[in-house]
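A favour, since you know our structure tokens better than I do. Would you make up a two-line entry for one protein for me to read? Write everything out right here, beneath this request.
=====
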Amino acid sequence: MPVTADLTKLVDKAYQDKTLTEIVDAPVSALAGVSDGDAKLLKDAFNITTVGDLGRNPYFRTANALVALTGGK
């Protein structure tokens, strides 16, 4: 079953026509609101260079799970 999503508010304009696989493999700065400076800080602190690295990072996954358990507060 195909799934579609409107990514226009989630990723920078240059990545809006990319596949999900291409976005996951893209630099973390492809995410809307993440600057090149933010991307450098993520690389320096957590060795995160791609959107996929960010999504698979255990610290961010734990924080996301904790927030979800509180009902998103």
Q: What stands out?
A: The chain has one domain: 7-70. The chain is about 50% helix and 0% strand.
